[in-house]
Amino acid sequence: MEAVKGLKLKTETKKNKRKEVLFLFAMLAVPVANWLVFWLYVNFSSIVLAFQDARTGAFTLNNFVTFWDNLTMPGGEIGIAVRNTFLYFATSLFIIMPISLFISYFLYKKIFMYKIFRVIFYLPAIISGVALVAVYSNFINPSGPLSYIFKLFGKVIPPEGLLARPETATNTIIGYCIWTGFSGYILLFSGGMSRIPEEVLESAKLDGCGSIRELIQVILPMMWPTVSTQIILLFLGLFSASGPILLFTNGNAETTTISFWIFKQVYGDALNSYNIVSATGLVFTIIGVPIILFVRWLMDKVAVVEY
Predict the structure, then answer these.
(1) I need a surface site. Which of 21, 142, 154, 299 has the fewest CB within 10 A?
(2) 122 within 8 A of 184, measured Cβ to Cβ
(3) Which three-class secondary structure state does DSSP give residue 304?
(4) Quick one: residue 269, left, alpha or beta (phi over 0 = left, psi -120 to 50 = alpha)?
């Protein structure tokens, strides 16, 4: 009798496992098919294009030679794009993110008029980017408010404007990115800080912990998963960091970035543009993958505070 019950139990267990497997297959079928078609197939085609001649389709490494020549030649468009891309990336990592962390902290501490400041910092995420670009363009116009501010310090904006000169165009757009780049980080960091137990902060305050020390030694370690995730995401977009180039300069005045250069090549009329773009993307992917894996390994080395 017991043997029969044991046999039935094993049979039911096998049936349940089969049902679980079928359920998992059914649930994963759509995302797997989506990955196969829209990622693997597309990227495989791109990899093949990188090694093909645009005219004959024959195997060639000329696309990589063209990429390298454009990257290393003085004034090469790809070289300029790489330089500008790193500038935007560094701005996000070393300026926008740290400042956002400090702003989030002071909003979290409910400083005077913190609700008004919260709305002000969230506005760039609510208002249309086109409208913000128009406002910023009028502000930096040679006859705009910035011109009067410059005159107070004995400076003059060039008649052609800051966006028309290679020396100032990229830095001007970076200034716009800083102005409008806090909203997303503040939202995420504020959410991370709101989860910290009040008892921990009260205990730190009783121990004589000041504001800066509280932020660095108490709050930051406790919300490190949020910060580290944002750092990893930044490195994931290392070679796609950019600003609203199309709305400001359309890539003129040496303001192009890698992502905008790819956009121009794909939507241009050049015969071999797809092949060069594929080679460029493959090179940056090979460079980027180990960087991302190293950054992730480095972020995981930081101990996470459990609470």
Answers:
(1) 154
(2) no
(3) coil
(4) alpha
Residues in the chain, overall count = 307
Structure tokens that stand for 35 in this block = 């990955």
Name residue 249's amino acid: T
Q: How many angstroms separate the Cα of 211 from the Cα of each of 28, 42, 104, 203?
A: 48, 50, 13, 13
Amino acid (one-letter) located at 2: E
Cα dihedral sign, 27-28-33-34 = positive
Q: What is the largest CA-CA distance in the chain?
A: 101
User: Would you give per-residue pLDDT tens digits along the chain (307 residues)?
Assistant: 555 555 566 667 777 788 888 888 888 898 899 988 888 887 888 889 999 998 888 999 999 999 999 999 999 999 999 999 999 999 999 999 999 999 999 999 998 999 999 999 989 988 999 999 999 999 999 999 999 999 898 889 999 999 999 999 999 999 999 999 999 999 999 999 988 988 888 888 888 888 899 999 899 999 999 999 999 999 999 999 999 999 999 999 999 999 999 999 888 755 558 899 999 999 999 999 999 999 999 999 988 777 6
CB atoms within 10 A of CB 148: 10
**For residue 283, what are the contacts with CB-CB under 8 A and spacing of at least 6?**
64, 67
Backbone phi, then psi, for 73, in 5-degree steps? Answer: -70, 145
Contact yes or no for 182/124 (Cβ under 8 A): yes
Across 215-235, b (16+ Cβ under 10 Å) vs e yields: beebbbebbbebbbebbeebb
**Beta bridge pairs of residue 52:** 59
